[in-house]
Amino acid sequence: MLVVKSIRNILIGFGIANIFLLIFILFAGAAGQTEIDIDILRTQVIGSICFGAFCGILSLIFESQRLSIVIKTGIQLFALLIGFAAFGYYLGWFRSLEEMMFMLIIFMIIYVIIWLFMYIIQKKLADQLNKGIK
């Protein structure tokens, strides 16, 4: 079952990463960048897919029954920040340390917003299931 969940999460990560890459390319085109080197594009696509797979695998931490939600979230956020910084540095997403720090802060804000949204959805679902049991 873990293998199936791993493959599912990796594929979801691939999709999300490529959606973000497409959005970036669209914004770059709107900003006037009309040409891109195919080798750079290939590197960015492969790097984005690898980062997506990395994120997908990390989400498996939430399958653990031994750790609290706070510990799981902390581990995942820390690992994602390290991964984002490493992939971003390697793929040239940042031009300076200041830019990298700014993007890491934006990444954390987006993570917290998504986490809170998912938490609220899961809490409502649990409440509905509990009402159905009573």
Please, could you describe this protein's structure?
This protein is mostly helical and 134 residues long. It has one domain (2-133). 82% of the residues lie in helices and 0% in strands. The protein contains 4 helices and no strands. The two termini are 30 Å apart.
Given the helix and strand composition, which structural class is it? mainly alpha
Q: What is the CA-based Rg, rounded?
A: 18 Å
- How confident is the prediction overall: mean pLDDT? 89
Task: Work out the helix count.
Answer: 4
Largest sheet: none
Sum up the overall morphology in one term: elongated
What is the number of independent domains? 1
- Work out the strand percent: under 5%
Order of helices and strands: HHHH
Secondary structure blueprint with pairings:
Elements: H1 2-30, H2 38-58, H3 69-91, H4 97-133
Pfam family, one: DUF3021
Transmembrane segments: 12-32, 44-62, 74-94, 100-121
Protein name: Small-conductance mechanosensitive channel
Quick take:
The protein is mostly helical and 134 residues long. Helices cover 82% and strands 0% of the residues.
